[in-house]
Amino acid sequence: MAPAQIAVFLVAAALATIVVAAMYLPGVARVFLIAQAAHWSLSYVARPVVLLWVRPVPSFGDNVPDPRLYEYGYDGGIAAVLQPVIFGLWVYTGLIVAYVLWVRLGPRVRTPRVAPFAGDPVFQQTLFLLYGIGTLGRLAAYATGTTGKAGELESPNPLINLVTILATLGAVGLIVFYRNDSGRHTALVVGALTCGELVWTATVQSKTPIMGAALAIAVRFAMTGWTRRNVIGVLSIIAVALGGFGWLQSLKTDAAAKADAAQVDAQYPAVVQPFLSMLRRFDLLEAATDAWFAGPSSWLTPGEVLRHSYQSLIPTQLLGAEKFRSGAAWAEQVRGRSVDMSTVEVSLAEGNINEGYVLGGYLGVAVGVAITFVLLLIWIHSLYSKYLAIAILGLSVIEVPVLFERGILGTVEMLGKYLQAVVLAWLAYLVVGELRRRMEQLSGAPAPSGKTRTAQWV
Q1: Mind telling me which residue stretches traverse the membrane in this protein (predicted)?
Q2: Number of domains the chain contains
Q3: What is the pLDDT of residues 412-427, one digit of tens each?
Q4: Model confidence over 12-31: pLDDT tens digits?
Q5: Helices first, then strands: H and E counts in the chain
Q6: Mean pLDDT of the region 101-130
């Protein structure tokens, strides 16, 4: 077996172990671990397998073959760049297995089976309001040509971008927390929201919206209970998302662009071609190649990492200076060492393993995956929180793939951006709660029993 094949096998073995361990965990932890394994499989297993099978020649408009790996040789190059990935995934696997053993054999920790906000009428109406406002923002962005694209350094319109985030939170929140006695009505709501996220995925040319919707559906079923119908439904939605993404993308291209794309895709087997549109969006293998060519401990110092991290949590208006953008810095300072990025302006996903490697070598990789593990545990409990801000942040982690394809810096940046949306969601929750209270007083209906959650901000 060639070195590259052995490397891919070790990566696949680590991911398979994570999936097996996840089956022994209850609730949403199982869903998120399986989603992580699936996401990393597309980058660290599917891409290398395609490269070793097809050995494509790099060409314009096709980022599946990396010119650096092609020049170095796919066998030796893939075997080399996957070494830190193998180490990081097995460290993460060890943490997951230890956590499973602690849950199964250690002291019993009873996680609430019903999230406090699940079925809460005030929270549901707030999510509908957020989704409505956010959808108007999306329409305004589309009408003005400021929708933005995946990888752009800055949003064309920061205000509209903030409003569109509300649609994201509303959609994911309703998919997870919406409850109705009518199963048909619930299915229609969830289906409509998923279709909307699929359309938005094609509009902004980013896999994030539909991935967030699919993961939110899986989280919903993990909280309400799995049935055979639910499993079939989730698998069907994933299949439709993978197939529908490329189809929706083709609707936005003219005949000449389709002909050029067909010529580029012609070097791939027919069985691979339908998945190329989605496969090109999972680019962590490129980030691993960046890290290997840059070398260990070749980027920022620990002090710079801490400074950029806490600054990312401060709004730009209060900070009074431009924030550090790790994705843009990665493109210029890390990838730029081995690829000419002088004429390219793009923000890249670096991944926890790859970021850790260029920050601190293999020790940095271990620290990076350990932080991902801690964030995963925090997220698991956030969806069951009785505090609005924590629950909203938990929903944002479902949508934003910080635990899939971002490192420490990228995770803090995305959470800092969503803190503003959390404040807007909290204000909307207060307004909806007050309007419901006044309407109940006018109608003479008795006030709802139990304490209100409008004060549960912190």
Answers
A1: 6-25, 77-103, 159-178, 231-248, 357-380, 387-409, 415-432
A2: 2
A3: 988 888 888 888 899 9
A4: 999 999 999 999 988 888 88
A5: 20, 0
A6: 79
